[in-house]
Known about the structure:
alpha/beta, Spore Coat Polysaccharide Biosynthesis Protein SpsA, Chain A, eight-stranded mixed β-sheet, eight-stranded parallel β-sheet
Amino acid sequence: MKAVILAGGFGTRLRPLSCTRPKLLFPIGNKPLLDWKLERLAKNGIKEVILAVNYMADAFIQRYGDSAYGMKLFYSKEEKPLRTGGPIKNAEEIIGREEIFLVLNGDILTNLDYSKLVKEHREKDATATIALHQVEDPSRYGVAELTEKNRIVQFVEKPTREKAPSNLINAGVYVLEPKIFDYIPSGQPVSIEREVFPKLADKGKLYGYPFEGLWTDIGKLEDYLKANKLLLDIEIKKSQLGKGVRLESGVKIKDPTVVGEKVVIGEKSEIGPHVVVGERVILGREVHAQNSVIFSGTVISDFTTVKGAVIGEDVTIGRKVKIGEGCMIGDHAVIRDNVTLTRDVTVCPSKEVAESVLTPKCLM
């Protein structure tokens, strides 16, 4: 059985970090999001994966080549953005029309059992089966109304909260019959959620598969931090230290936290909870970090505090710096001593910041 991963998104809401890497290569618990997906697909018996790529396609090819986790990898390149349905049609030749296949939205982190979803689909007279997850506010998503037998009688994309037919939202994982290709025109952008699923619902050919467990997207900074937090809480639970980590005296690591290989943490620093530290990071004396992700190769000097932020690769942060919630620091940026960055400040790659910024803004 084959799976298609929609990996063509631009990640605009995660800039400046997505200026230098595609969203699917953002680390979750120190492993790229795409690795978590591929690993789970392999465990569920998938043999071939098609990556529908566009933005920074070469980054995927260079990292994974033609195989991963014992599965064959293929690449289907979009010449222009084709939204969510177009890439599926674009990959029709690679997918073939012989059997059902899985489709995964690229920016979703979940521990869904794909084999159970496939089994449920096979038992129904369905053209498509959508994995569904319950959320408090469904207005950001496609929302399904189900019959008792899990047939979807109504599918509404991003309704207002008051008009949502339920709290069960499209979890971004589908099982599709080859018949789906007949519903998607060639060579043009198509939204499978807005243009295809409602037609299937009208014909009684759209079914849902409600599931519980780990699920989140990583479309925005708060979602990305939430994905790391959920993974740490649900899958990892305890703190993990990589090989060659050096902790100086008085260091406190608060559960759950993940520290990559060859990291140095200075005296009396407190790291965690819910912190992910990449490889070869150097943290100085009395550094405090919580609910944050620090990418590989970054240096954070003495007496600096990082809270609710994401720090890119090979960033240099000086002494007595304060980085507040919602801040994103692009790769290779330099933050000088005694600088305070309050809430929602973003710093573009390679930018040097020498003065405090006390209002939300993007530093270019």
